[in-house]
Amino acid sequence: MAVANGGSITFTTPGTARQALLAGVQIADVQATATITVPTLPTAGSGVYFGLQARSDGKRYYQSTVRVTPTGSVYLGTARIDGSTTNQKKLSKEALVASGLQPGQSLQMDLRTRSSTTVTVASRAWVVGAAKPSWQRIATDASAERLQSGGIGVWSYLSSAAAPLGLGISALSAAPVTSSSANPEPEPTTPVPAPTEPTDPVETPVPEPTTPATPTTPTAPATPTTPTTPTGPDTQVPSSGRGSAAVGATSYAIPKGALYVTAGNGTGGSGSLASPYTSLTHAVAKAPNGSTLVLRAGTYRESVVLASSKQLTIQSYPKEAVWLDGSDRVTGWNKSSTGWAVTGWNTGFDTSPTFTKGASDGSAEAIKFINPAYPLAAYPDQVWVDGVAQQQVASERAVGTGTFFVDRAGKRLILGTDPAGKTVTASKLQTALAVKSVGSVVRGLGVRNYGNSVYQMGAITAQNDAITFENLVVQDNATIGMYAWGTGVTFANITATGNGMMGGGANSADKFTLKNSVISGNNVQNFNRMPVSGGFKITRSRTVAFTDNDFQKNTTVGLWLDESVYNGKVSGNRSIGNGATGIILEISDTFSVTNNVIASNGRYGLWIGNTGNVQVWNNTITGNSMAALQLTQDKRRQTNVNSAGHDRRQPLPDMTVPWIIKNVTVSNNVISGAGGGCLVCVEDQSKEFTAEQMKLTLNGNVYQRASANAPSLAVRWGQGAATAKSFATVAAFTKATGQERRSVLVEGTAVTTTGYQLTPAALAQSALVVVAVPSSIAGLLGLQAGIAPARAGSLLSP
């Protein structure tokens, strides 16, 4: 039934809300649909909100809410409102569902409520003209406060920091959901402890609830939505000189006495060029310690362990393409009731989304690995038809074109696409290569299509000291591409892309280096941002370096250093177009962050949380959806008993990483943006420290914003338990605090090009304000100590 068409909502006073209940519509099991148009994007703050309501009596209702940010990112969440928007129970966390929305474009959103004993609330939102997605937010409400029936309503809110704007409603309709309608259900979860990223601040019209959601009764997994492509904007800087050489393009010298290997599954050959070993597994077993194994061209469908007792170099033959591949061809298909099936399928992959085999997901939102809209994210099964990835579904009846189902009880693989005349491959192996020997080297190979479970950490792993991975392409593996633990591990010229959860990671990896690599397009299975997903994450490690890498278009975080990482260098990187924050430094200490481009990310640019002794010099931080630079202190301390995130190799408390923001210097940076409430935001959620007590020093930076209201604040300066000081301009900030005595604020005119270089005008302005660099930073920038660089921002070439 159509209940409304046409109309608009106009905000003349930002910071206010609008709400309307549509009379005469009373449906319990309902699907409501709205189409809204955003004539202009919000100018500042957290954005403009539009809510679609069901089972409403005007005061209590279920609501699906979209939030459009000043940069055109679109977020979606669901909640039960109890009396007013200041009293709500969030049923699902916000998720980024679209980016790059342009003024005048329309969004369509659906909200469905169903059942009474346990109410299922499902929602989705998409840009009109794009393909309609499956349900993106799915939640259940089994509490005593659940709502049984009511009407359809709408609600809207504009951030207090934004300028007035209007929303257009071109269509609003509702229809009853019948017993035959599909009923999306959430993934069952059981509490399990896990480290968390603290809630970072976003201006919202309602507070975050302080109690976890009521655990739901376990149900069968829902049919998942199709994984999205990374959600950053289209702007992407070419990765010239970074990443791996193409598989088959390297030409490593072959030392005297090298042994040769060919692809196969046998135990033959002598290792000579004329009679190579007939599998890598056999070659590793036969080769003497210290040998070099040269792999001839081919696809090696193996899972290999290099034991700790044997140091080897494994490399490709010059100009020959070598792939370690976890998939194999599947034949013997027969027509089934819903598609085509092959019997005898018995992969038995572990489906836990955690780092503990067999463990269930966490119960609290902050420690859930699984996004309810993608409940099969941790299922490692992968199938391709003629090289095109198929989407896994949760039941045989859900199988259709482009999907597959694994019938574990019946040991069948069921395919929805007709396999006749096509090549069907599926992941049959979980890990490619586990390197456990000190000093071993792996180079010039590709690693793809392994169905690794989360607890296995990576398709290829470095599990001891002084291991080198070089010129590797690591792609399309089910969860994590590569992982390291051990001292002195180096990952150089790596390309990690299309991996299900994360491109790579490391833990307890002192003296770890990642350099000249491209980590892009990972987390294709849409794991939650927290506790871990995205490009690369390192934890509990000391003296680490991330140099000259690209972290681009990952679905969530670009680069994340967390949990007692001590003494790190983050230099020359480009973290661009990631769906969440570009670079995170969290509960760690002692970093230099220099010469990076951190741009066009879906949340913050650089987020520093509970991390002290940080030098932030000559970075370009621009175009991020929220604050360019966010410093957040919370209640976590290294002195807490059994502190989650403590490096267990260090004494407790380890006061080299006290988890307190202190001694942070920010100089010669370009700090630009239109999103969030401020360009630089400093706050202490524990209400203990003022910004002055944190000993923050800001000077010589170039600031830019779209207008005086986008964002409305240049700086928010936390004052512990007192109200934060807010400064609309840098000049006001300088006058009140003595900070930024050499700086400039540009409004309206862009200061960077599309390649994130300073414009000629901004270059001239920045030359007047930059300050001399200290000796600890000069070498990282290629400068002499005590000399000011020619310009602010990153010194990287386009």
From TrEMBL:
Alphabetical list of InterPro entries matching this protein: Beta_helix, PbH1, Pectin_lyas_fold, Pectin_lyase_fold/virulence
Biased composition (Low complexity): 213-238
Protein name: Parallel beta-helix repeat (Two copies)
Domain of life of the native organism: Bacteria
Comp. bias intervals (Pro residues): 185-212
Phylogenetic lineage: Bacteria, Bacillati, Actinomycetota, Actinomycetes, Micrococcales
SMART domains linked: PbH1
SUPFAM superfamilies xrefs: Pectin lyase-like
Source species of the chain: Plantibacter elymi
Region (Disordered): 177-246
Ranges for domain Right handed beta helix: 462-621
